[in-house]
Write a structure and sequence with these properties.
The protein has helices at residues 2-7, 9-34. It is mainly α. The longest helix is centred in the middle third of the chain and has 26 residues, at 9-34. The chain crosses the membrane at residues 15-34.
Amino acid sequence: MRVLMSSQPSLNRKMWVSTVIIELIGIIVVSVGIG
């Protein structure tokens, strides 16, 4: 995994950003649901 990540930093960065966005959306949805 580390070799793949180091060989494709741009792809890894896109995956990381996508994961962060999904987590943020999930937090917002939960907050709105609770609120």
